[in-house]
Amino acid sequence: MRATKKRCLMLSWMLAYVEQVSDSEFTLPVSLKLLQSLTPLQQLERLPAYLRNLRDEGDRDVFERFVRHWLASESSADESSSFSHGNRFWTQRLQQLQRQLADTPLSLTDPYYIKVGLTGWDMARMQLLSRVAFDRGLISNREMWDNQIYAWKYAASTLGSWNDVGFSCLLGYALHADSIPLGKLYRCYQIATESAESPWVATRFK
Asked: In terms of Cα–Cα distance, which of 139, 124, 138, 155 is closest to 19?
């Protein structure tokens, strides 16, 4: 499927919806707000290096390795295990998220959702933050579009649907953004994947 500019930009729609920003709002205050909520960065100048990290590694690889071990261990609640001690952040976050998801139709133990992982989260962040970086003059227009197209092609080759992208974004937010309640994230996920106001609903993924 051809990676048109419109389709590429659509990848980060749910993130933009959660953050309540539009195409015309990439001002410095909005850029800083996005950096605070979507990255560990404190300075805009470090954003190009962070974008390269998202492209090469991001959160997806370490999360996939960890979650498979975590689910296979049968003892994820055992904080005395060496595995839990060595991965305390992921262990605590996943335990908390698993409890929260009990109120939704989603489950971390479902192989479908395990497969999705954080690929969509990484690629949507790379896309949205590339636009911020370009707006602030930190990368060129060519670099910005190269990131857009790479993010789309990587997501499309790894994930199977807009639902996959949406769940990956929900999962990434849930693991990293304590300030956003899971209930709000789940409503955003439903809007992104079910509502007529979402461009995802009217557009084939691939």
From this structure: 124
Query: In this predicted model, which residue has the larger pLDDT, 94 or 159?
Result: 159
- Number of Cα atoms under 13 Å in the Cβ half of residue 136: 22
Alpha-carbon distance of 65 to 61, in angstroms, equals 6
Collect all residues with Cβ–Cβ distance below 8 Å to 59 and sequence separation of at least 6. 118, 121, 122, 172, 175, 176
Determine whether 43 is exposed, middle or buried from the number of CB atoms within 10 Å of its CB (0-12, 13-18, 19+). Answer: exposed
Kindly give the residue spans of alpha helices, DSSP state H, lying in the chain: 5-10, 13-19, 28-38, 47-56, 60-73, 82-86, 88-100, 111-116, 119-135, 141-158, 162-176, 182-194
Listed by start position, the domains of the chain span 5-194
CB 161 within 8 A of CB 170: no
Tokens representing residue 72 in the block: 């296979």
Greatest C-alpha distance within the chain: 50
- Which one, of 177, 168, 161, 181, lies nearest residue 106 by Cα? 168
What's the pLDDT tens digit per position in 79-102?
445 445 446 666 777 777 777 777
Pair of tokens at residue 109: 């133990």
Q: Is 125 helix (H, G, I), strand (E, B) or coil?
A: helix
pLDDT of residue 186 exceeding 80: yes
Instruction: Summarize the confidence of residues 117-136 as an average pLDDT.
Output: 93
**Best CA proximity match to 26, nearest among 127, 142, 140, 133:** 133
